[in-house]
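Q: What would this chain look like folded?
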Amino acid sequence: MSSLEALFIAVLQGVTELFPVSSLGHAVVLPPLLGMQVDQRAPDFLPFLVVLHLGTAAALLLYFWRDWIGLLVALLGLGSPERRPAQLKLLTLIVIATVPAAILGFAFNNFFKMLFGSPVIAAAFLVVNGGLLWVGERLRLKAAGQRRIEDMGWVDALFVGLAQATALIPGISRSGATMVAGLRLGLHHEAAARFSFLLATPIIAGAAVLEVPKLLHEHATLGPVSILAGVAAGITAYLSIAFLMRYFHKHDFEALDPFAYYCFGFGVLALALLLFVF
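A: My prediction, written as structure tokens:
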């Protein structure tokens, strides 16, 4: 993998990890379509992916630093007594919503790794992801926007967590699935996106940190290209978060439709190219 390819993948990760278009699906589909020589078994590939995910997690922490500081302060029993119950509840909701993906990802790790190696399957699920986004907008509660994250209960958090677990399949967007679930629960697009991004932080950071012992065992080292790619992924992710939060604040009617149409179009095009050209 060349330096230019590494930076391309880093920017791709930073954008598609948070946009509801599936970073995993793009990571599987685009390299063969563009003729990129990406050897996923190369000794420097795992450290490269870990750095990209840490860069994205850092961007999420930086953008939502006030939320995370508030949650940490509440967990330590400090801060405003009036705000502490709501902050502890939010932290509990995040933990509950994180559990399904963690359990299913561990239990079916080999199965999902097999799917990761199939660009055709990933392209097909990109089309499915487009359908989920489009249908999700139309199945949202008529009262959507009248509930707040603070109004959610543990069953609601578990529902969002189960939706998040579907993103273990390449082509299904984690942020898209969780936002659709949030809309179904009656959240405004902006609130659904905020909870989705807060939920993304432990998932993305945890996935990266879990690979660290393997890296230490294999005495893996980070090259300057990997570090630069991690920075690029972090900057791109931060800009993506800022854009999406502003976008969902201003757009509440069928806001996910543009992403649905993109997934439809790109998924169908990728399928056609992979099946009949490459």
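The mean pLDDT is 85.
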